[in-house]
Fold this sequence. Notes:
Blueprint: E1 4-7, E2 12-15, H1 24-33, H2 36-52, H3 60-74
Antiparallel strand pairs: 1-2
Helix pairs in contact: 2-3
Amino acid sequence: MTRTIFCQKLNKEAEGLAMPPYPGEKGQWIYNNISKEAWEAWQKHQTMLINEKRLNLMEPDTRKYLTEQMDKFFANDEVDQADGFVPTSD
Length: 90
């Protein structure tokens, strides 16, 4: 059985996550406000950032950077992209 939430990223009703992806308040906020689809989009974008920028997840600054990017991503603010990124026209 799935649960439906209003996804703040997609601005529509969508399938929610099965469990909070982070500990604490941030994880609970994501669980309550971000859909499975939006979370998967963030994971794909995060992986691109890690690979393109050769980030080391053991470094606290990297984790802080990715958290800031995640917050921007879910707020529909401008986020960092890969070098040479060309946005698609929808």
